[in-house]
Amino acid sequence: MYHIFVRRTAVWAFEQLNAGNYAALLDRCAPQVQHSFAGEHALGGSRRGIPALRNWFQRLYRLFPNLEFEIVDVLVRGWPWNTRVIVRWIDRAQLAGNLNYENTGVHALRLRWGRLTHLQAYLDTQIIAATCEHLAAQGIAEAAAVPLID
């Protein structure tokens, strides 16, 4: 029963992200949540803590304002004190310069007593880097900014 609840919560969280409501996800994070997003681009790097993750989400939605995730699969393992969640997805957006963005990936999550403690994104970082370059060429300077790391 616990795994069903966690799976539904994970799907709900991505529905919130589709609506641009990343604050709903931040409300479920541990104070020292760790977030990693691979690559040498404006979204890359690692950060710790809710304020740092909030800054990253703000940048994400400035660059990808209509980002939408399609959930392909959700796997849940473990107990409430050490839960692992894998969410496989496809994300899409229509971006500046009439670019149709699409990528596939996985989020590896770790929960402790219902709080998100670790969030690791695995996706095609070459697509992200190329998309950031395209956005920078469209005049969106933040797409060429250094990663938000702490």
Provide a count of the helices: 4
Main beta sheet: strand number and arrangement? 6 strands, mixed
Domain module tally: 1
First-last Cα distance: 37 Å
**SSE order:** HHEEHEEEEH
- What's the architecture, going by CATH? Roll
Number of strands: 6
CATH classification class: Alpha Beta
Residue windows where pLDDT falls under 50 for at least 5 positions = none
Tell me, briefly, the overall form: globular
CATH topology: Nuclear Transport Factor 2, Chain: A
The class by helix and strand makeup works out as alpha+beta
Strand fraction band?
A: 35-45%
Describe this structure in words.
This protein is α+β, with helices and mostly antiparallel strands and 150 residues long. The protein has one domain (2-144): Roll (Nuclear Transport Factor 2, Chain: A), CATH 3.10.450.50. It has helices at residues 2-18, 22-26, 50-63, 125-137; strands spanning 29-37, 45-48, 68-79, 82-95, 99-112, 115-123. A 6-stranded mixed sheet has the order 2-1-6-5-4-3. The longest helix has 17 residues, at 2-18. The mean pLDDT is 95.
